[in-house]
Amino acid sequence: MNTAYKFRMYPTKQQEAQLYLTLETCRHLYNLALADRKNAYEVEGISRSYEDQAAMLTAEKKEGNFKGVFSQVLQDVLRRLDKSFKAFFRRVKAGEKPGYPRFKGQGWYKSFTYPQVGFKLDGLKLTLSKIGSIRIFKHREVEGRIKTCTIKKDHLGRWYAILVTEIEDVSQIEPKTAIGVDVGLKSLVALSTGKTIQYPKYYIKDETKLAVAQRDLSRKKKGSSNRRKAKIKVARLHQKIQSHRDEFLHQVSSKIVDSADLIVFENLNISGMLKNHHLAKHIQDHAWGRLIQFTQSKAAKAGKVVELVDARYTSQKCSQCGIMVPKTLADRTHLCPNCGLEMDRDVNAALNIVTLGLRGRACREIGTPTQ
Ligand SMILES: [Zn+2]
């Protein structure tokens, strides 16, 4: 299984100049190699392969060209071009009308890759061959063997390192314990154990700031420098919210995976259409998708199982006796007139969800509220 880690980099002025130089050299090579393919085909009727062009690159390097950029990074440029040609021909064959691979103008080549070697992660520094040791913000520990390292610049001029690691697949364990997770109305999630997890306070604060920044932006004149500034502000806030949210969701998913072998989620793709489309809800749905994604990848590493179930009626049904107890969104408590069960409505739903996930399984030890 592959995992990608994205870390912000803080290069010095000198390192940044070197990063730009690398991007420009790669872009230059990409365009040259593209022109060569085009030319070889149009003039001589020859199709160039990756191997042909890699050999040409070696010859160029011997002549002293493309200095200052690690050789495998350059080879990766040729591999990228090869990939886009292969995709192009595949689509032609399929009867589509794809665009011919394009030349990259200035600013349109945004990343380069160390495919195997030439980089080293050491504490809070990432050392790149021909560039130097760059300080990074490492917000997560890197697990597994690092396969590739891609350096990327975003539209705000910030630099990132994307490390892809490989972890051997863990064989699945036979689940002995199970937990159900429901989207809460007020909280982020409700668990079948009776626990609810709230959004951290900063989450709400960030959202408010974003709403203000977006309103500011909408009032700025089109094409003005103030509008450009306001746009950057909104983009920065978006990024900040995203990284805060991911950090929080990583913590929550760790807790969930630690708590049981079988984890059952509501499948929002099925039941989502029943929910209202209020903005807050939209944000929550997005967080929900990320949470499931994080939980799935952590569970896979631990050999645990994640299941998504159709959660329609789970908030109405009594988790103890099974009768329908209609509720409005305002009803916070599930109170069953048949069996007398009284509990948080979301916890009741989480219990129904875990029951759905357990159908046809031998596992009977359910994480239930201790009351
Ligand atoms: Zn009941």
Overall pLDDT, averaged? Answer: 88
Main β-sheet: number of strands, strand sense, barrel status?
7 strands, antiparallel
The total of helices stands at 8
Small-molecule binders here are: zinc ion
Strand order, largest beta sheet: 2-6-7-1-5-4-3
**In terms of structural class, how would the helical and strand content be classed?**
alpha+beta
Element order: H for helix, E for strand: EHHHEEEEEEEEEHHEHHEEEHE
Low-confidence stretches: 270-274
Q: How big a fraction of the residues is strand?
A: 15-25%
Describe this structure in words.
- It contains 8 helices and 15 strands.
- The chain is α+β, with helices and mostly antiparallel strands.
- It folds into 2 domains: 2-166, no CATH class; 177-201 and 242-366, Nucleotidyltransferase, domain 5.
- It has a 7-stranded antiparallel sheet with strand order 2-6-7-1-5-4-3. Strands 8, 9, 10, 11, 12 and 15 form a 6-stranded mixed sheet that branches.
- Helix 2 (50-62) runs antiparallel to helix 3 (71-93), helix 4 (201-219) runs antiparallel to helix 5 and helix 5 packs across helix 7 (279-302).
- The longest helix is centred in the middle third of the chain and has 35 residues, at 225-259.
- The chain is elongated.
- It starts with a strand and ends in a 5-residue tail after the last strand.
- Residues 318, 320-321, 323, 336, 338-339, 341 line the site of zinc ion (ZN).
